[in-house]
Amino acid sequence: MNMNGYQCIACSVTRTADFDGFLCPSCGGNLDITYDYAAVANNIDDSFFQGSNDVFRFAALLPLKQPRSHFPLRVGGTPLYPVQRLGELAGMQNLYLKDDTLNPSASLKDRASAVVIGRALDIGANVVSVASTGNAGSSLACLAAATGLDAVIFVPANAPVAKLTQMLAFGARVLAVRGNYDDAYDLCLAASDEFGWFNRSTGYNAFAREGKKTCAYEIWQDLDGRVPDRVVVSTGDGNTLGAIWKGWCDLKAVGLIDRLPKIDCVQSEASAAISETVRQIRTGDESTVNWSTLKMREVNASTVADSISVDRPRDGLAAVKAIIQSGGEAVTVQDQEILAAIPQIARATGVFPEPAAAAPWAGVKQMIRNKKIATDELVVCIVSGSGLKDVANAQNAVGEPQIIEPSLQAVREVADIGG
Ligand SMILES: Cc1ncc(COP(=O)(O)O)c(C=O)c1O
Ligand SMILES: [Zn+2]
């Protein structure tokens, strides 16, 4: 294993790899896992990042003791699609979608759950827990079922029914909290502490970031070693965005690439804590920010995109750092633009996103309009969750089918079909 310790994202204090806590013992900040990059770089040969078509092929930069090449489900290894017709709608020539709806539980969260479960197996934990807006929970429930672990999931009671049903189908203990995601999060922390469960919750568990960063590795492989100009990420807690940035930084640290992409954050106007923090920083001198004292904005989130509806981002600092350090944009879009992006993506590409996963395309169109992106840039939008997870909101965007009598005459009378 090339992991060599932890470093606090806020105050930079380090701990060795045998540290068994979750948060920084000095300041309570989130921890980031560190690697011996020189050792990794020295061992790069033809077999590097090869093997099973899933996240575990990246074992050289994963923090796991046991190789998990026989993991029961295929997590990761999702396609990167060039989507010319979608891009043309905004005059773009080089747009790609990373279709992470094709993970076992139909969201990018499976990458995090796979590595967290790998860790749980490494340390002999039997019960895994998580607080979730929905996808992290359905993902952990799915992979716990596949590996024979017990899962306890804390969700806001109003999470989309498809996500709740996934969790129940996979046999997780689902605790639907009368409150929002932030309430569920705090309760999951307290309960996991009390009962000794291995808590996967975003930000708190450093291993989740390690799983999600594999998304960057795959994009790099699928582009045959090219680095995109931008990767556009739908953002709630900020863990996914920070993880994708880390993936690219890893590749640079081991000498596989020599430049980094910009990472753009897209949030709903109705849940924009991270974007507002970035904007505030950029009103001053962004090169002199003191990360250990930076105060994150908090909001009263109310977006239709449930996956990114977050009052207090749980990995906000990592995301804000990633946006600033990469030179990316922090964009906010209206909920109506998010809903409109669902059928636009679906109709131009055949990929069906949930609202949160449609947000990056809404953000890209805005950035093109505002001339933040040139039309020839190579842009990758992450499609982080499937439209089947939130049919009610998709239906708001596409309406209902036309109902007709079972006769050919009825078809003839439908003016816009046929010859
Ligand atoms: C589909 C989808 N997109 C984006 C996100 C945002 O990830 P993060 O909360 O780490 O910013 C989530 C998180 O739940 C999600 O489920
Ligand atoms: Zn610290």
Q: Roughly how many Å apart are the termini?
A: 64 Å
Describe the strand arrangement of the main beta sheet, using strand numbers.
4-5-13-10-11-12
Mean pLDDT: 96
Strand residue percentage: 5-15%
What is the approximate shape?
Answer: globular
Q: With helices defined by DSSP (H or I, 4 residues minimum), what is the helix count?
A: 15
Number of strands: 13
What is the helix content?
25-40%
Low-confidence stretches: none
- Small-molecule binders: pyridoxal-5'-phosphate, zinc ion
- The rounded Rg comes to 21 Å
Order of helices and strands: EEEHEHEHEHEHEHEHHEHEHHEHHEHH
Characterize the largest beta sheet: strand count, sense, and whether it forms a barrel: 6 strands, mixed
> Which structural class is indicated by helix and strand composition?
alpha/beta
Describe this structure in words.
- The protein has 419 residues and is an alpha/beta fold.
- The chain is 38% helix and 15% strand.
- The chain has 15 helices and 13 strands.
- The strands form 3 sheets. It has a 6-stranded mixed sheet, sandwiched between helices.
- A hairpin with a 5-residue loop joins strand 1 and strand 2.
- The protein is globular.
- The termini are far apart.
- The mean pLDDT is 96.
- The structure holds pyridoxal-5'-phosphate and zinc ion.
- Pyridoxal-5'-phosphate binds next to helix 4, helix 9 and helix 13.
